[in-house]
Amino acid sequence: MNTPVSRLTAANNYFEDFAVGDVFQHARGRTITETDNVGITLQVLNTAQGHFNEHRMLGSAFGQRINFGGITASFIIGLAAQDTAEQVLEERGLNRIRFSNPVFHGDTLTAFTEVLRKEDGARDGAGLVTFRHVGINQDRKVVFTGERHVLMKRRSHWGER
Q: Per-residue b/e over 66-77, b at no fewer than 16 CB within 10 Å?
């Protein structure tokens, strides 16, 4: 990402704590294991051979199995959750999803989030926030981007007083 990281977030962020243009680097990383990929891929009935047939993939452009994109997306959003989901009332949408580089077993993913939009919500005590989540691997290659639209609690209504 070209945008400088403005600050790290902390637990219990409310609508008021986010400003359009803020970029956060999330504290944790996660290494993708074979169990993550094969187990979840088969569990959701994804039968694409590229995710669980090593011999078939040896002759492919990748030279090995690739991680199922649904897992990549879930892990990046999960890595961002402590900072962007603690005060969410409703998940409204996930859009503009892109998988820009393959993820392999053993890759370690980290996440950044940019605040794209904020607006008043129809629900009292809450506002709408749109985040762009970006996942990178250990080589700093972007592997995932996606925009997540949420209805988030306002501290003024829900926070400790």
A: bbbbebbbebbb
126-136 vs 23-31, strand pairing mode: unpaired
Residues 36 and 40: their CA atoms lie apart, in Å, by 6
| Mean pLDDT, the chain cut into blocks of 10 residues (161 residues total) | 52 86 91 90 87 91 94 95 92 97 97 96 90 98 98 85 54
Q: What totals of helices (H) and strands (E) does the chain contain, helices first?
A: 4, 5
| Superfamily (CATH H level) for 15-31+67-158 | Hotdog Thioesterase (3.10.129.10)
